Prior knowledge:
CATH class: Alpha Beta
Order of helices and strands: EHHEHEEH
Structural class: alpha+beta
Distance between the termini: 36 Å
Number of domains: 1
Shape: elongated
Number of strands: 4
CATH architecture: Roll
Helix content: 25-40%
Radius of gyration: 19 Å
Largest sheet: 4 strands, antiparallel
CATH topology: Chitinase A, domain 3
Amino acid sequence: MAPIALHHILLRSEWLARDLLRELHLGASFEDLASEHSVCLSARNMGFAGYHNPDQLPLALSQALQEWDGQAAVIGPVGTDLGFHLLKPVTLAPRPVVTDDAVTDDAISQPSN
């Protein structure tokens, strides 16, 4: 699986995780809920936990991400030894690789506006 930008909310209570998931389904802001409720340091960044290869995450999180259909906005709650996670993954579009052979003389001599 390709690296993803991962946002998450870590909670100690499964009950609270399910309650926040309902709030998210009703339109609450993931970032606001992460800032207010998450016990993870990523709460300072509105839940942004960085870029991760799912295969390098704890097994429960990795499995949840591998089962993700790419459509659901939030995954969870997913239980781990740390607590209960609500995950908001964002797939990263592959970046095109530009080689010297792909660059034409016209592209070099004519700057784009």
